[in-house]
Amino acid sequence: MKRKQLLTATLLTAGILLLLNLLAREYSLRLDFTADQRYTLSKVTKDILKDLNNPVTVTVYFSDNLPPQLSKVRRDFEDMLREYARRSGGNLVYEFISPGDDPAIEQKAMQSGISPIEISVREKDQLKKQKAYMGAVIHKGEQKEVIPVIAGQPIEYALSSNIKKLSTANKPKIAFLQGHGEPPLMQLVQLNQMLSVLYQPKALFLSDTANIAEDIRTIAIIAPRDTFPARHIAQLEAFVAEGGNLVLALNKVDAPKQLNVPLTAIHTGLEPWLAKKGITLDNKVVIDVQCGQVSIPRRVGNMTLQSQERFFYFPLLNKFADHPASKGLEAVLFQFANPLSFNGDSTKKFIPLAYTSERSGVLPASAPISLERNWQEADFNEPRQVVAAALEHKAEGKAKSRLVVFGDGDFAVAAQQGQQVNEDNVHFMANAIDWLSDDTGLIDLRTKQVKFRPLRQGISEGTKSFLKYFNFLFPILLVIMYGIVRMQKRKAIRRMRMSETSV
Length: 503
What we know:
This protein has helices spanning 2-26, 43-50, 68-87, 103-111, 155-167, 189-195, 230-241, 270-276, 423-437, 443-446, 461-502; strands at residues 56-62, 92-97, 117-123, 126-132, 134-140, 143-147, 173-178, 200-205, 216-222, 245-249, 253-254, 264-265, 279-281, 284-288, 291-300, 303-317, 319-320, 332-333, 340-342, 348-355, 360-364, 386-393, 401-406. With 503 residues, the protein is of the alpha+beta class. An eight-stranded mixed β-sheet has the order 8-7-9-10-23-22-20-17. A four-stranded mixed β-sheet has the order 2-1-5-6, covered by helices on one side. A three-stranded antiparallel β-sheet has the order 15-16-18. Helix 6 packs across helix 9.
């Protein structure tokens, strides 16, 4: 009977597992406990897939035998594509191809726009370089879009935005104002690449006679250094009055070329115009204990060494409003930022987007910039300074217009051509333009990725070391303690049985 019962139980278990496996191929259920819901498709993605009328093919070139962290990227991407295919009602199909050592497949991948990258692989205690393909090509009819490298970016945004791009016939136009000392578009390469997925970025020079074109949805005014003529300000006012949107990233002061000198004031003529709308850029500069670093030459004996030191004039922002323009951001670095204040009326809605930390303050813009200053706690007694904000005009009978104002003009600008800008800095600017220009909801996907999780400020080095070793040793101690308890229980049971046998 025992053998028959065991066989029956085994067959029943095997049948249940087989049935569950078959059901799992048709239906999927996942519980997503991640902070940013990275494994759950958003509503905007579901809507994009639901609206597909023509087939979309995703060809993924992904090398085999990659390190575990990159193999996980492949599994996550494949899981997401499987979910995309299911949600699209059969209009999205995909395939994975491993180039391996096949020159024909490698050539086809590179002709499609996917080049190999070099990765480091540890093999037999040696570190060696290896060529790897990790890209995807999205086809819709004769059109195609390319994701050159899948790793290191929000995958859902990359997929959904490119599918949306293939489905959009006429993309909205975004203009970057030029002619007033603004940086050229070549210094905004990352921002342009990010926006070109859904928009047509273009340079805009205001003429003396013509009005701003009606097909421009948003104008970005980034780091102007020259004074705006009155006629140009009038053209911007007319654009806003007709429902146009503006992004203004303004510098009130110029970065010093050397230390121990006051900051140079910048007057563009936009400040009085903004003040009439209720937004004032204070003639002050923000300082923050939570800040970036600069490289300073220090004399050590007969040598000069570069020392990385905190620079309180470079606030590192991680306090953001729960707003589409700032949602999902982790760390944005400003430089010589000016605080914003609002004194407008009830016809306008002022929305702070980014704040400095609890240990921040302000200094007069005329104060000399010095690393040798004897900083006191009292210098950082004005916390949560607003350095970025949105303004919505909600007066009845007028076209709805919106503005986003940043108290730093250079945070999304590369200092020189080819230099990379902090990713979240670019995201912040792109999110602001998206919020003003886009109604698809893809803005929520760009920052759907956890990147920056620093330890709490003020933790000593001893505490950090304790936490590191505790996290490493505590699980091992738990296993050892469980083994000891289990061994003692087995010994007790053995002694009890031996006593019963002797009786």
